[in-house]
Write a structure and sequence with these properties.
3 helices; 0% strand; globular; mainly alpha
């Protein structure tokens, strides 16, 4: 299979990221953490394969993830965690929206504040 026919492979588990709502890369893009100029060359991961980031998604459409160790949100400052949960969850909600929308990739990010 040609590289371009493989889709986006998760750099952690090696399996295809089949849907945008599973995409760590596109969630980070929506949040403004990935520049659109490098989106096509940036490494992809499933959200579940980046638990230190995914633990901040608090949404019925996403199973909660617990992290052990230094990055476990249960051991971090409660104010920071609440702020991060709000930001990442709103980004995830936008990810769900764009999965259903027929819009340009440049329209994916929006002011989520």
């Amino acid at each position: 299979m040609a590289k371009c026919d493989e889709g986006y492979l998760c750099q952690v588990c090696g399996h295809e990221v089949e849907n945008i709502v599973e995409s760590d890369l596109y969630l980070r893009y929506i949040l403004g953490l990935v520049d659109p100029e490098v989106l096509h060359i940036a490494p992809e991961r499933h959200l579940r394969c980046n638990p230190a980031f995914a633990q901040y998604i608090v949404h019925s459409e996403f199973p909660s993830i617990e992290v052990e160790g230094d990055f476990d949100k249960r051991h971090l400052d409660a104010k920071f965690v609440a702020m991060r949960e709000e930001e990442v969850t709103r980004g995830f909600e936008r990810l769900l929206e764009v999965a259903q929308a027929d819009i340009s990739i440049l329209q994916y990010p929006r002011d989520i504040d």
